[in-house]
Design goal:
The protein has ten helices and twelve strands. With 328 residues, the protein is α/β, with parallel strands linked by helices. The structure holds iron/sulfur cluster (SF4).
């Protein structure tokens, strides 16, 4: 008998948001994410094919997942990503399709992404200084990122959210200039605390965002606000609503109690929590001829593995994998 109840984990949290990593490759080497000499990529033959992705996401959508975010590594490195976007945005139940990108290739794809159902994007931008971006990402790429952002704006992707990983003594002196940049371009700025995911995350210069939030709230007279999107950010808004800034604070003030998401890696592994190792392998099932009902049952079993919360503070050495393997 088909069970149509929506996906809920063991802590009564509805799971309605899936982050899909379409590749673990990236053209950048952000210091808090992927080591410069990283070689542990997944073999392409183990990548889920577009048919397998469409079938699996279709099953998740039947069970209530309505938000889908394409991530990586850098998702725009996956060939024909816009084709995949078109297929996924057409799936019954998927109401919101978005993309997280470093924007270095966005100028070539922005319009096609828009035309294939991607409505909004998040762009990683940790500095507005050329040398500093090169230091953080390992590449001289600020000009490409800015060109990508402007192309995204031009194509009508909206909102465009800027993700800045705030690092103590690295880019925390640019918080005000990043605020000014986002006000000027109408981007929604989000500051993110570094997380101890992989050795790179553990070595990152963590910056507690609570004092930053308080300072900006006082300086701009910001009010608590809500921005659509279903993610973990807590937002502040200017009284005239023209400027919004979000804070993603997994360490100083976590948001696990309202977690609504899981992550599917490029090889079909479902990571039920960014800060834990509980996972479920879908590729063998997909390649083993599982039925649609069997797939839905497997999804429910996978979600039942989802832990209550991360232990970044208690066990900062726990997560070995790098952020690039699950797409943040
Ligand atoms: S750490 Fe895990 S439980 Fe907490 S918000 Fe992230 S994915 Fe959800």
């Amino acid at each position: 008998m088909t069970d149509h109840t929506l996906l809920t984990d063991n802590f009564q949290r509805p799971i309605e948001y899936l982050r899909l990593s379409v590749t673990d490759r990236c053209d950048l080497r952000c210091a808090y994410c992927m080591p410069e000499d990283f070689k542990g990529y997944e073999e392409p033959e183990n990548w889920l094919t577009f048919d397998e992705i469409e079938r699996l996401i279709g099953a998740f959508a039947r069970l209530g997942v309505k938000r889908l975010r394409l991530t990586g590594g850098e998702p725009l490195l996956r060939r024909d990503l816009t084709g995949l976007a078109g297929r996924l945005s057409a799936l019954p139940g998927i109401e919101d399709l978005s993309l997280s990108t470093n924007a270095t290739h966005l100028d070539k794809h922005a319009q096609a992404l828009r035309d294939n159902g991607i409505s909004r994007i998040n762009v990683s931008l940790d500095s507005l200084q050329r040398e500093r971006i090169e230091k953080i990402t390992g590449r001289d790429c600020l000009h490409k990122i800015l060109a990508g952002l402007m192309a995204g704006k031009e194509a009508g992707l909206a909102p465009i959210k800027i993700n800045m990983v705030a690092l103590q003594g690295v880019n925390d002196d640019e918080i005000d200039s990043m605020v000014a940049f986002c006000i000027e371009h109408g981007f929604i700025l989000r500051f993110i605390e570094a997380m101890p995911v992989g050795s790179t995350g553990r070595e990152a210069q963590f910056l507690d965002l609570q004092p930053v939030k308080q300072r900006l709230q006082e300086r701009f007279g910001l009010l608590e606000g809500v921005i659509p999107g279903g993610g973990p950010a807590r937002y502040l808004k200017s009284a005239d609503g023209k400027f919004s800034v979000g804070f993603i604070t997994p360490i100083s003030q976590h948001f696990c109690e309202t977690c609504n998401r899981v992550r599917l890696a490029v090889d079909g592994t479902l990571y039920t929590c960014l800060g834990q190792d509980e996972k479920f392998e879908f590729r063998p099932l997909l390649r083993g001829g599982i039925s649609d009902q069997g797939l839905e049952d497997a999804i429910r079993l996978a979600i039942s593995l989802k832990p209550e919360r991360h232990e970044f503070r208690e066990e900062p050495r726990k997560i070995i994998r790098f952020m690039s393997s699950t797409g943040g």
